């Protein structure tokens, strides 16, 4: 896999991106505070039929950090520039989890001509409540003072289901490793960006591309009812719930999630 990791100058920063396969471009946009490795099972599964593009976003993984605030729009602009750097003219199948979903709204708003379909995993269209914003800013303070180790273990119960923690301890271990390898300034910058993100709930009715909404039945952060409601507002949208898993459905139940995505992508081909 190593030789498929490339470093490109994108939008003024050095970005690490995994690229492999041929066929329609499938862009995998990771959640917070992780990196492209959260998509390992999806990469392995889809690289035989698609051109899989899985970047480390600004401030995460091995991509350069920007201090201060990195907005969701900034991430979307980075992805647009990345597609330019890769000379990709074909419209992309955009798959984003959680923060990757927040970036998806911005990508759809600013670069609709680049989008062929949307896959939204465990995310929401609303902005944060006042309490949500305060919690994000508290995490910023904690991480800047004490590093990512101060949040890694405590995030796990919100991210993966009790069953996943019990039956697949390697998932939590991998996630803790990813979180702890993330620079504190990178975590702080995107956390601030999420705190000030726009509310898209009144706009998503305008999405014209086929859309798949996937959620874990035990998701604490973006519960099924939130995503089901969101899906009903998107015109050409399919909703699917993965039983027994939490917020990290693609990592917790890769076989089921891959099958749902694959069926969806095949239906996009036929439309």
UniProtKB/TrEMBL annotation:
Q: Which SUPFAM superfamilies does this entry report, sorted A to Z?
A: alpha/beta-Hydrolases
Q: Which UniProt keywords apply?
A: Hydrolase
- Any one GO molecular-function label of the UniProt entry: 3-oxoadipate enol-lactonase activity
Coiled-coil stretches noted in the UniProt entry, renumbered to this chain? none
Supply the Gene3D superfamilies for this chain: alpha/beta hydrolase
Q: Which domain of life is it from?
A: Bacteria
Record-annotated AB hydrolase-1 domain positions: 25-254
Task: Give the first-level EC class, as a single word.
Answer: hydrolase
EC numbers, comma separated:
3.1.1.24
Q: Which InterPro entries does this entry report, sorted A to Z?
A: AB_hydrolase_1 (IPR000073), AB_hydrolase_fold (IPR029058), AB_hydrolase_sf (IPR050266), Epox_hydrolase-like (IPR000639)
Name of the protein: 3-oxoadipate enol-lactonase 2
Organism of provenance: Gimesia fumaroli
């Amino acid at each position: 896999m190593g030789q498929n990791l490339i470093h490109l100058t994108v939008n003024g920063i050095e970005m690490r991106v995994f690229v492999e396969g041929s066929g329609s471009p499938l862009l995998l946009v990771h959640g917070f505070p992780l990196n492209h490795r959260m998509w390992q099972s999806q990469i392995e599964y889809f690289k035989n039929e698609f051109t899989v593009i899985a970047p480390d976003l600004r401030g995460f993984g091995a991509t350069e950090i920007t201090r201060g605030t990195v907005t969701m729009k900034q991430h979307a602009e980075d992805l647009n520039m990345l597609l330019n750097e890769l000379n990709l003219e074909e419209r992309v199948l955009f798959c984003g989890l959680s923060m990757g979903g927040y970036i998806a709204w911005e990508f759809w708003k600013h670069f609709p001509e680049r989008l062929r379909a949307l896959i939204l995993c465990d995310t929401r269209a609303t902005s944060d409540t006042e309490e949500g914003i305060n919690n994000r800013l508290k995490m910023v303070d904690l991480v800047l003072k004490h590093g990512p180790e101060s949040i890694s273990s405590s995030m796990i119960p919100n991210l993966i289901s009790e069953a996943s923690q019990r039956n697949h301890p390697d998932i939590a271990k991998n996630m803790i490793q990813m979180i702890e390898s993330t620079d504190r300034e990178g975590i702080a910058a995107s956390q601030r960006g999420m705190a000030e993100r726009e509310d898209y709930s009144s706009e998503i009715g305008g999405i014209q591309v086929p859309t798949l909404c996937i959620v874990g039945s035990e998701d604490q952060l973006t519960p099924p009812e939130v995503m089901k409601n969101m899906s009903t507002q998107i015109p050409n949208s399919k909703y699917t719930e993965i039983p027994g898993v939490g917020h990290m459905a693609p990592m917790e139940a890769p076989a089921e999630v891959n099958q749902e995505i694959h069926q969806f992508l095949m239906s996009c081909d036929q439309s």
